Description:
Elements: H1 3-25, H2 27-47, E1 52-62, H3 75-86, H4 89-99, H5 105-110, E2 112-116, E3 122-129, H6 132-154, E4 165-175, H7 184-209, H8 216-223, E5 227-232, E6 245-248, H9 253-268, E7 277-282, H10 289-302, E8 306-311, H11 319-322, H12 332-336, E9 346-349, H13 365-372, E10 383-387, H14 396-399, H15 402-413, E11 418-422, H16 433-438, E12 441-447, H17 453-465, E13 472-478, E14 500-503
Parallel strand pairs: 5-13, 7-11, 7-12, 8-10, 8-11, 12-13
Antiparallel strand pairs: 1-3, 1-4, 2-3, 6-14, 9-10
Helix pairs in contact: 1-7, 2-7, 4-6, 8-17, 9-10
Amino acid sequence: MSKPEQERLSSRSxxxxxxxxxxxxxxxxxxxxVVCAVSGAVAIxxxxxxxxxxxxxxxxxxxxxxxxxxxxxxxxxxxxTMTSLLESDIVARRVIQSQRLPxxxxxxxxxxxxxxxxxxxxxxxSYDSTDKKIAVGVLDAIGRIFTGLVKQRxxxxxxxxxxxxxxTVFDPAHLEPGTVAPHPARNAVLAAILGLLLxxxxxxxxxxLDERVRSRKDAEAWMNAPVVGVIPQLPSTGRRxxxxxxxxxxxxxxxxxxxxxxxxxxxxxxxxxxxxxxxVASAVPNEGKSTLAASLSAVLALSGKDVIxxxxxxxxxxxxxxxxxxxxxxGLVEVLADNAKLADVVANVTLPYYPRSGMLPAIGAxxxxxxxxxxxxxxxxxxxxxxRHGSIPAKPADIFQSGTVEKIVHDLRGMxxxxxxxxxxxxxAADAFPLIRSADTxxxxxxxxxxxxxxxxxxxxxxxxxxxxxxxxxxxxxxxxESYGYYGYxxxxxxxxxxxxxxxxxxxxxxxx
Length: 513
């Protein structure tokens, strides 16, 4: 296959994938519009009055009732002429008078239908009415009055013997079975087709106006930075307010492989960074930065690294809770205020099982077997420790002074292979700015279907103004198939005690960030 053909196929595939994704996201809108259209059609049909039809046949001819062979070519013009006469006002007025109908000639003729076959001299006449008796009565009167007028005006007269015009009612007026309107099935089908067209149009218009991150391409373009990790969306399992949402790890291999891939990109890829200090940030809340910080710290530790994760989000601290650690006690705030030593606030975290972790890190068969046997120690030389946030300060922005932050970062560099900071959202607080400028690697999370273009571009502009141009993006909650597990390339599962992922929720049932 030539290169141009490959490019065309790739373009078509991308085109189909794009529109398929739009239809998947906006499918509910199409369904709603179709349901509304069909329901409306059914409702309108239900309140409509039934319309009945009466019909009859009139034979028109010449002389003894039929056209002579020599006049065969004149049948069609003749029947058209007779049709026009049948639909004339004079016939309509006389019918209205004879039947005493509250109609005008125009109103009566609007329900009258006259058809003919070009090869015959038979007129097919029908009349529609909401009343069966009126339908038959009107048509019967039309037949009598029309044939009478034809006989009177064009009948046998001296001098025109054999050439006079005749009109004879052959099939008297009678009621056709069933109704001619409304048509419930036809109306429902037409409404469904119209609903599909309108729904598809509305879906694409709505999607084009929706400026939320929908793909890796959007994240890279709006943040002006490369994407180094794509974390798939956790399947929804439902929950009750005040309870944690639980699900088995066995169904989340794509999540685990995505975390491994992120770790590999940070360590080995050209756009990655192997720096010691990693700061995890986001533009706004609820983009998964705390969950990412906990999971990344864990997978780095499970790979044999000595890792310290620091809860530097002093407004909504959640990192300790995600890693199953108590919130109380001295922490980063006390160290910043010079009320505690850094070494005294560093606490050990047990690997690999975290009862309140948003995303349990990847596990290998060796670690799984060790946990199943009751040994929950560190993984193959790795160690994970945490510096909790400590007390909540009245003015968090005043706590993070550049000189103090730089000293703490310097001290932490000498204590671990990697230091992972979870910070406040960039657009809501300036707390993270000193940490961001001291970082070796800045990871900014964006959540598919949540992060808006304005927020992403504003965050990028803010980072540019701080002189931070080397940033990396992690696309969180992705619905695309960008993990090994989706392709069926998965490792065999250990036969051991089932692991669980527990996503934390607050008392109101809201998922913690």
